[in-house]
Design brief:
219 residues, alpha+beta, four-stranded antiparallel β-sheet, 9 helices, flat
Length: 219
């Protein structure tokens, strides 16, 4: 009796118990999308198993994941003749159904998402294809620095909202010197050189001389 009671008190580790339960999920705080992982397979067991594995890996990496969301099936059909000539009517039909599942990750750090995807690629399951769309977000400080480098005459010492609404007139002023010489290989010195060549004495004598084949009269 004592041994049986002790065995009842003993339990399996939580990691082993979790295998027999649904995968745990973390709640997203902000709901910002980080990654959409699409799984494809021709076998429903394979795609369901790997989707469960992806959710468990996301939980232990502290990634809020949602899913698996079943996506519409992709059905493909082919008709192939078994023979030719007079037996052309003897045909055979083939069908292939692709099953898809979607796993969404929100509020995930880009490096953590990369680790999660690398872990899934390393332990990829046979017969399951993966396609991931990853989004990376950055602050507006990079945008301000890029505007300052591209348009030095534009004043960006404003708030975040006003910085996004920079007036078009300021941008035109900064671009006006460049648009003035658009299509030219050089600056204003080019026109001055052209005038200098036109005022050359040699060019004047050449322009005043009669054409070699002109007139058409006899000599």
């Amino acid at each position: 009796e004592t041994t049986s009671s002790k065995q009842e008190l003993l339990r399996m580790p939580r990691s082993v118990q979790a295998v027999y339960l649904k995968p745990l999920k973390r709640k997203a705080v902000h709901g910002i999308p980080s990654c959409d992982l699409q799984l494809r397979s021709y076998n429903v067991r394979n795609v369901e198993f790997f989707a469960d594995f992806a959710l468990r890996a996301a939980y232990y990496l502290h990634l809020p994941a949602l899913g698996p969301v079943p996506l519409p099936r992709i059905t493909e059909r082919w008709t192939v003749p078994r023979s030719n000539f007079v037996n052309k009517k003897s045909q055979e039909n083939f069908e292939r159904v692709t099953l898809r599942r979607l796993v969404q990750v929100h509020d995930g750090h880009p490096e953590t998402v990369e680790v999660w995807l690398a872990f899934l690629r390393k332990h990829a399951y046979y017969g399951v294809g993966m396609k991931a769309n990853v989004w990376e977000h950055d602050g507006l400080g990079m945008l301000i620095r890029a505007i300052e480098q591209e348009y030095p005459l534009v004043d960006v010492d404003l708030g975040v909202g006003k910085t996004m609404d920079i007036s078009l007139e300021n941008i035109k002023r900064s671009l006006q010197p460049r648009w003035a010489h658009f299509g030219r290989r050089k600056n204003l010195e080019t026109s001055e050189r052209v005038y200098g060549i036109m005022d050359n004495d040699t060019l004047r004598r050449t322009s005043d001389a009669p054409l070699s084949g002109g007139g058409g009269g006899a000599v």
